[in-house]
Amino acid sequence: MDLQKIMAKARDVAKSSGTITTEQLNGLCPNSMESDDIAALFAALRAEGIRLKDDDAEK
User: Fold this and answer.
1) How many domains does the chain have?
2) How far apart (Å, rounded) are the C-alpha atoms in residues 18 and 48?
3) What superkingdom heads the lineage (predicted)?
């Protein structure tokens, strides 16, 4: 997993609103992510100030 590439794409998605939906984030991540990688990704999102938004919040 290349966390830097995923974070660059997540920054682009979250640029205007400061949030990314779980669906958008899932689309950026490979299916083979390990739990440690997921935890590192969430920590990186928090460090960047990007909030994870539930998809249902849009509806």
Assistant:
1) 1
2) 9
3) Bacteria
